[in-house]
Amino acid sequence: MHPNALLDMTAELLRDVLRLDSPADAIVSAFFRKNKNLGQRERHALAETTYAVLRQRPLLRHLAQSGSGPAERRLAILGWQGNAGFLRGALSPAEQQWLDQVQALDKSALPAHLHHNLPEWLAEPLLARLGDEQFRALAASMNEAAPLDLRVNTLKTKREDALATLKTAGIAAEATPYSPWGLRIQGKPALNKLELFTGGGVEVQDEGSQLLALLLDAKRGEMVVDFCAGAGGKTLALGAAMRNTGRLYAFDVSGHRLAALKPRLARSGLSNIYPSQIAHERDERIKRLAGKIDRVLVDAPCSGLGTLRRNPDLKWRQTPQAIAELQAKQGAILASAARLLKPGGRLVYATCSLLDAENEAIAEAFGAAHPDFVPLPAGEALDKAHVAQAGGLVENGYLRLWPHRHQTDGFFAAVWERKR
Ligand SMILES: C[S@@+](CC[C@H](N)C(=O)[O-])C[C@H]1O[C@@H](n2cnc3c(N)ncnc32)[C@H](O)[C@@H]1O
After folding, report:
1. Pocket mutation for ligand 1, best pick of 151, 206, 248, 252 (most atoms within 8 Å of C-beta)
2. Which regions of the chain carry the CATH code 3.40.50.150?
3. What's 207-418's CATH class?
4. Helix or strand or coil: residue 176?
5. Hey, which residues are catalytic here?
6. Residues annotated in the binding site for S-adenosyl-L-methionine, as ranges?
7. C-alpha angle with apex 307: 301 to 309, nearest 5 degrees?
8. Using CA positions, which residue lies closest to atom 17 of ligand 1?
9. Pocket test for ligand 1, best of 228, 258, 351 (most atoms within 8 A of CB)
10. What is the mean pLDDT of the chain?
11. pLDDT at site 372
């Protein structure tokens, strides 16, 4: 495709995405379905430029004020993530001159919000929690793309063997530092045609997600519930940890999400998983299982703000009001899920949010209202699950993962044991 045509196409995609009325990944996928003849490199440039503009929207909008022509084209030029020579081929002499001027500007004197590129309602609590230096490091890490992590399905293969298979296929990878199941891939190679993937030997899963499953420490023969199973990323990890024995109920209110678990389940070779759509957190099925379950994971619906490297549109689409509504939901789901546990059973509450409001605040309110649940320090639980350097993943007894410190998505988890 001619460079100018691709640049105009990127501007068209940006126009749709910047309306912020649907998730960016859904808009990008629909755009690719509509434009089937785009090559791999063109798709990469379109998607990555879109994400780069979303990540740095305030800064790029500020810088784009000086140019001329359609605003989205200017943003696409400033955020361009494809080949630089290719971009030059798309620019008019005036655009090239403007780009050179913008690139030469000293940006160090710009106001703080043009550096962190976060809305004020989000920047403020993060800065208060982390302090200036850590906050800057976090904001910078959110401007990077996330690495590609895999979880080895230990039912089918060993981590060393999966690593060797990847190497033979010309894919560079290394063991993840914390999760004993994890591999971190260099770059973004296509994996979906590899036997290792189609045969269920590995699943794509952020190392942080793997650590949440490890925290539950589900064992052979147990009765386990994944209360908010969604498309089953953690369900599959738990099922393998249980060595395909016992019973693992995968609950979710979304039939659509549970349906996405089916092909992954087929690849995994697991037969101990029972997906079940529930109407709400007080569904009859939950009452029937009350007091019978060994371990319950509540991977609660949340703002998703720990995943900004993958979903940068969330910082512009989320609102404080939506988070207040989520908090009420999180408390209600946790209280209801807790009723499932046997005496001595383990409860894990987790989110992929960075905000205390969805994390510590929910865990502490639950703890205060449920004296029969005793907090279990996350570091201890992770150590027992063979997680390396577990002490560095914990704050105030809770699991707290940060993109800038741990190279994972942002995650929180609290653990309790029901009194015997
Ligand atoms: C963070 S996502 C789960 C991701 C999933 N555990 C994984 O690892 O792939 C939260 C899930 O909670 C589900 N959910 C929302 N309200 C719920 C409720 N009242 N009871 C159970 N699940 C609920 C959503 O449909 C969503 O799939």
Report:
1. 252
2. 207-418
3. alpha beta
4. coil
5. 352
6. 252, 299
7. 160
8. 253
9. 228
10. 97
11. 97
Query: Which one, of 329, 270, 319, 260, lies nearest residue 298 by Cα?
Result: 329
pLDDT at 325: 98
Angle ∠(366,371,372) on CA atoms, nearest 5 = 105
Q: pLDDT of 349-404, one tens digit each?
A: 999 999 999 999 999 999 999 999 999 999 999 999 999 999 999 999 999 999 99
pTM score? 0.96
**Cβ–Cβ under 8 Å, residues 78 and 70:** no
Query: What is the per-residue pLDDT across 229-260, written as a single tens digit (0 to 9) for each?
Result: 999 999 999 999 999 999 999 999 999 999 99
> Which amino acid appears at position 344 of this protein?
G
Q: Whose CA is nearest to atom 15 of ligand 1?
A: 301
| Residue 58 token pair | 């305030």
User: Does 234 contact ligand 1 (Cβ within 6 A)?
Assistant: yes
Comparing CA positions, the residue from 7, 120, 86 lying closest to residue 53 is 7
Q: What is the ipTM of this complex?
A: 0.99
Contact assessment for residue 261 and residue 250, using Cβ atoms and an 8 Å cutoff: yes
Structure tokens at 280: 């709400």
